[in-house]
Amino acid sequence: MSECPYFEKRHLLFKIKPPLEDDEDSSQEGVNKASKGGVVYGDYLQLDKITTAQVLQSELKGNKIHDEHLFIVTHQAYELWFKQILFELDSVREIFISGHVRDERNMLKVNTRIHRIVMIFRLLVDQFAVLETMTALDFFDFREYLSAASGFQSLQFRVLENKIGVPDNLRVPYNRRHYRDNFKGHDSKTLLQTEQEPTLLKLVEEWLERTPGLEVDGFNFWERLKINIFDGLNVEKEKIEKMPESEEKEELTAELVKQREIFTSLFDEKRHDHLVSKGERRLSYKALQGALMIYFYREEPRFQVPFQLLTSLMDIDTLMTKWRYNHVCMVHRMIGSKAGTGGSSGYLYLRSTVSDRYKVFVDLFNLATFLVPRHWVPKLNPNVHTFLYMAECCDSSYCSSEDSD
Amino acid sequence: MSECPYFEKRHLLFKIKPPLEDDEDSSQEGVNKASKGGVVYGDYLQLDKITTAQVLQSELKGNKIHDEHLFIVTHQAYELWFKQILFELDSVREIFISGHVRDERNMLKVNTRIHRIVMIFRLLVDQFAVLETMTALDFFDFREYLSAASGFQSLQFRVLENKIGVPDNLRVPYNRRHYRDNFKGHDSKTLLQTEQEPTLLKLVEEWLERTPGLEVDGFNFWERLKINIFDGLNVEKEKIEKMPESEEKEELTAELVKQREIFTSLFDEKRHDHLVSKGERRLSYKALQGALMIYFYREEPRFQVPFQLLTSLMDIDTLMTKWRYNHVCMVHRMIGSKAGTGGSSGYLYLRSTVSDRYKVFVDLFNLATFLVPRHWVPKLNPNVHTFLYMAECCDSSYCSSEDSD
Amino acid sequence: MSECPYFEKRHLLFKIKPPLEDDEDSSQEGVNKASKGGVVYGDYLQLDKITTAQVLQSELKGNKIHDEHLFIVTHQAYELWFKQILFELDSVREIFISGHVRDERNMLKVNTRIHRIVMIFRLLVDQFAVLETMTALDFFDFREYLSAASGFQSLQFRVLENKIGVPDNLRVPYNRRHYRDNFKGHDSKTLLQTEQEPTLLKLVEEWLERTPGLEVDGFNFWERLKINIFDGLNVEKEKIEKMPESEEKEELTAELVKQREIFTSLFDEKRHDHLVSKGERRLSYKALQGALMIYFYREEPRFQVPFQLLTSLMDIDTLMTKWRYNHVCMVHRMIGSKAGTGGSSGYLYLRSTVSDRYKVFVDLFNLATFLVPRHWVPKLNPNVHTFLYMAECCDSSYCSSEDSD
Amino acid sequence: MSECPYFEKRHLLFKIKPPLEDDEDSSQEGVNKASKGGVVYGDYLQLDKITTAQVLQSELKGNKIHDEHLFIVTHQAYELWFKQILFELDSVREIFISGHVRDERNMLKVNTRIHRIVMIFRLLVDQFAVLETMTALDFFDFREYLSAASGFQSLQFRVLENKIGVPDNLRVPYNRRHYRDNFKGHDSKTLLQTEQEPTLLKLVEEWLERTPGLEVDGFNFWERLKINIFDGLNVEKEKIEKMPESEEKEELTAELVKQREIFTSLFDEKRHDHLVSKGERRLSYKALQGALMIYFYREEPRFQVPFQLLTSLMDIDTLMTKWRYNHVCMVHRMIGSKAGTGGSSGYLYLRSTVSDRYKVFVDLFNLATFLVPRHWVPKLNPNVHTFLYMAECCDSSYCSSEDSD
């Protein structure tokens, strides 16, 4: 009806296909012409719920403040989108958990949905511009009525963080309390439960560990890379040693020492485990190798889509920290920092969450430290090429695309 | 609680001020610590309604299609924001209707709220990027289940158009039916009713007609402007006539004729009324004069904020047409144009609504045709300066800012 | 130096690798510490050119108008980005022309660069918001000084249109003249030349025609699809015929007739050629088949990246029309439409370019008209699966990624 | 010509008005038809400079890397916009320095230009999305060729910071060196010089100090406010003391103590000066009073535009820190953090600049700490109303709008 012609009549036709029940059409009898053959727009979207859920506390208290309406609607829009993000995230996690990800045909779906989360977060970052049309003075007029209802005391957002993989022990405490203690009984249980489910981080880690080419008795990427790097560094060293003494030679020598240290750290598994224990790295040593392999061979058909996935995961991390930062900026404007007043500052708490501690896929960023010239990357021999291409054929079971939902 | 520190404890303090009932705090007894002193975040936002309103028709029909969830959430987000826009729009209309706009102190509020509508529309235009992560093929998988529930069969959007001032008789019919006939009983009545309320266009028109300086027995802007323009054109004419014959002279002469025609049309009230009757102009002749006056004297303190208002009204028009156009683009991608298939096309209907017929404040754009050099604009004499400034003092009644809501 | 630490000293190290000349470092002797080892930021970016290229005509004419500076800078920013788009476009066209596209390893590169063009156009659409801070009145103050220097009389933009594939004969004439006649000698030649080079449309067409699976003596997608569709329609027909007489039955029957017409048109090659001759379709019949095949089998690993490419090509088309539409909106605001003045309108010319005639990949949108239920899509048999996967192995030659530039 | 019809022929007409020299038109003789009557588009924009300024270092070194072109163009686009921001900023500073700001008619201009800077920064924040299409691996391929040419070693950006008011002594040192020492001779001098010019911060401070209503022998806003606040706090205290003993009473009492401390700090001039000396406040005590006065009386016609200005100044600060933060995010992705490698990190340096130390108008944010209920704000008596309105009339001299450029 109305103006959007998404649904041309032709679809009536396809309605008579198997998945539909026979009694579906008879159930429409007696229905007004406008809704003939199906559900009406407003009912479909349950607008009776959505557009009646704006109750101003200030109005209840007898002092209606205009801008509270914007405050409510903005937060509801955030929650709607959080719901959508969780829906996408759960479906992606399910594809990994069920093992469907081993069928390469499902990678497009994984990628598309992760990319959709990226696009939603991009919108959410922009959405602050709307709430910023409210000034500190407008906000002051009604914030007293909100009391404990903290603006972003959002269960869905905490669940989202948990499911992506923000670890419990890296969270900044608030009010000197564990983050979970700021929620009530049922919600607190939900949070505990989501902490125990496999996170996106964990699932991606397992998938990276299976990257073809890492096998020690196969292509053995890691060993080959190590050899190439230290060979390369030795060649550099010889070159530098042949140079006449000069300030430049000294600098280059110093640089070389630093380089060697950096790469030595890369191949030091104990050091890796130590960094993991401190929370500075998050992926297993093997998963890290898989990620670096995908980086270096991203142009191989087998790795093009996986490479896009790693990029999108970094996008999510980046956008979540940008969201946090935009939030901080808005809070600064709304309530000030209380610097120099003797008052305690929630603003400063929030600032502390804009930190690499909250970047789940921080290793994917930090791998940039370990890039090497293209000619140091181990060459794939023709067999490995074939191996990589054929990998997709190993899985002969057909996995219908929508089954995995 | 949780992380957002909008609501520091200090507000407990102000809770004890007059508008609050005594029994408010006693009602909190026995409440869990987390919600102490007030409403809890999830209850405040009625998230039980908002986050449970996503029912997939495809799932009901036994064939759950993943992307339908995005489709629902996106449309719900649009409806949430339409609700907010209507809330702002109604409050602005109320300020005009009640006459509070005559107190200059309310202009900041009018401007801020209109600007907020602009910011929301900017978000809504960007929001298409999220829905565009769904492909035509994803959409095809579930669109049959939607049947009559047209994607943008939105009552709120039609109400919004009516309240801004899209006139009934300029609407493109859909399905050969009047737009209202595409809605059912109660909704249809709502639409009829909003057509009969004073539109934003009408209210702005009345306000423009009162622009100080238009008074025939006062500054008489319109007459002065007319004199200056035709004097100016005559001076040009004389200059051109003195030039030696040349191609350039001919061109300039032709241009001058055209100029004279254009300005003659401006001062021809009958022509204006004719254009109004055809829907090519929307404002009364006097309101048009007021708008042009605000344009020319925008730097006068008295006119700075009114000028911003006119600019924001054009922004709304522009963004609404951009929204329509983005919608058209998405529909093209989702269902094709059916060009060359023999099928009828809703896409083409939609395209026809991306038209100046739907620009409510089209006159504010078209006034750009009638700009003149600064030295043709009638000078304000010192008295008029004072008059303009003093205008604000005329209103001595104090109008508390939130009373008008 | 300064603050951006992109370039840590470690890179000094790699500087001593083969492609670098020995004398490079000696050329740095005597250079200030700040630029040691290489080019200085300002020199590198040639800022002496970039930031001195703003000469205001109004200032030259003795009447400096502030806002002309914004006008110049905005247009220069557009031209900078057009240069970048052309650079990406040329590199992609080169990969196609050289045949490197047959090596699947280059598809990531093609996709990334086309996606980059998408991101740039998204920025360019947003960029109008900056120029819109200039009002019609500000513009009026200096537009007389610009005379013939039309705001978007941009050679690069025309070249861009030509290289993507806007055909000469579908262009709307301006000033009753062929578009090329609005440019002078050398520029006009450049335009003619770019019309004769292979367009992106043409190159993509050739690539689509090679889609594996189209071979008549192989999988023969087109014939199988045709059979499935008409079988499907027949099954529907039988179902409907068994229904008792009713209004619904009539509707469904009518719908079925329409459906059959639509699909009959799809398999009618002569009709296709006729639509091509009218400019309503742009791709060859075979390329259309390839595109539909990629749509239907998008989840096959072999087709995931090609499917992304088709999506990005539609993005470019969409964003270019959005850019045109935003341009139209701004021009309306700047100079009005002249409706009802007797003046001729450039605004109306511009509006006419926001048309499907200027959508180069219009067929990719319109294919949405021909989607079918998943169970009508011909099943790939295991051999074809293998065939598809193996296709990538056919090309054994190694194609270094940057050689193709 | 071409498609943009900004410049209709009619403007030829106005060309013959006073400010134009007689010989202007004769200078056009013999010019090609396309450029008749004026400058040609490409010449006007000096595209010969703009579009030829992309020289790839990697190409010069014999190893052309495709993505370096994007790197160059993006930075050039940033520099173009920095040029525009500086142009607007200088013009606004000139209006303040010359005293033209005392003519209220110039406030629209100030506001519009500051708002334009806001819009440009918004674009610059978004612009990172384009550069982010380059991956760490693409960047690695050419970053060695850039050596010392640091990505954002931008003189214009430093000048911009100086002119807005980032103070020398609050800057984070880089490479253990003063920021200025990272620039060469001439540029270093330019920086020193801009440090000594009146900053936007300083000029706004002086303007705030003149806010009408602050006069001790007049309305005496500050004294009245102080009285009202402490009266208000005393009333609260009495209310609380009357409550029966309870946990709530204790909390409220504690809160009240905190409130009193906060407001005591507000009225403590010595404390203010101490905070200024530490860099935690930037405005003079009197200017702070003016800002708070504008906040509280923002709806008075006299203060509506000033209030918008204060809001825009916060926008600039916010967007500059967002820009810095986006920059940090991109650098993290491009070069990693080097955490745990032994390498020193430029990333960490950059992070340290995303700090309130770099927020010039930090006081305008922090004033949110000192908001009070509306009924505590001193009432304007009718005389003061008049006084405020009349303030604008004091300046009788006419200040032509463009003279101030």
From TrEMBL, chains A, B, C, D:
It catalyses: L-tryptophan + O2 = N-formyl-L-kynurenine. GO terms for molecular function: heme binding; L-tryptophan 2,3-dioxygenase activity; metal ion binding. Pathway: Amino-acid degradation; L-tryptophan degradation via kynurenine pathway; L-kynurenine from L-tryptophan: step 1/2. Its cofactor is heme. GO terms for biological process: L-tryptophan catabolic process to acetyl-CoA; L-tryptophan catabolic process to kynurenine. Keywords: Dioxygenase, Heme, Iron, Metal-binding, Oxidoreductase, Tryptophan catabolism. The keyword Oxidoreductase applies. The keyword Heme applies. Binds 1 heme group per subunit. Its EC number is 1.13.11.11. Coiled coil: none annotated. It holds the Pfam family Trp_dioxygenase. It comes from the Eukaryota. Homotetramer. Dimer of dimers. Heme-dependent dioxygenase that catalyzes the oxidative cleavage of the L-tryptophan (L-Trp) pyrrole ring and converts L-tryptophan to N-formyl-L-kynurenine. Catalyzes the oxidative cleavage of the indole moiety. Belongs to the tryptophan 2,3-dioxygenase family. This is Tryptophan 2,3-dioxygenase. It comes from Nothobranchius furzeri.
